[in-house]
């Protein structure tokens, strides 16, 4: 999408969170051919991992819309609004971190079946492998966002809103 609106992101988050709470349908309706219980267990773990990864991405998108990447001197009169926006961005990034931990947990569960490969959901398998090897590490990305956000917050706190 060219534009991501907060209401669209919130709606997508809502439906993905509903999917996490829902029961799994019959394996006949899976996106991959499931022929035994081990394949079904791996599929469920990969599916849940993928939903959690999508939630991480959505929360990062939403948080980025509220994040201020620079604290310019001419924004001093709106210091309180900018600080409130940074608080919201921090909260959204912290939510993303929770879902990242869940994604890692389900990737670990799926990795118990390394010898079993579901070719129809190869992208999920690849994502799980990238998590296992550390190639995909949203914790580092979110940590970078949070540390940059804290630097900007400190700059805003140091500003005197009556100066400009």
């Amino acid at each position: 999408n060219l534009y991501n609106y907060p209401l669209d992101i919130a709606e997508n988050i809502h439906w993905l969170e509903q999917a996490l709470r829902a029961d799994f349908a019959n394996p006949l309706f899976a996106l991959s051919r499931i022929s035994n219980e081990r394949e079904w267990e791996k599929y469920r773990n990969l599916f849940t991992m993928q939903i959690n990864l999508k939630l991480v991405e959505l929360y990062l998108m939403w948080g980025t819309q509220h994040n201020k990447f620079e604290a310019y001197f001419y924004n001093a009169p709106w210091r309180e609004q900018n600080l409130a926006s940074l608080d919201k961005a921090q909260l959204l990034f912290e939510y993303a971190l929770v879902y990242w931990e869940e994604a890692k947990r389900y990737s670990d569960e799926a990795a118990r079946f390394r010898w079993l490969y579901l070719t129809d959901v190869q992208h999920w398998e690849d994502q799980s492998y990238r998590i296992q090897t550390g190639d995909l590490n949203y914790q580092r990305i979110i940590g970078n966002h949070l540390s940059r956000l804290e630097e900007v917050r400190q700059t805003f706190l140091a500003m005197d809103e009556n100066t400009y």
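The chain is about 70% helix and 0% strand. Residues 38 and 113 are 8 Å apart (CA to CA).
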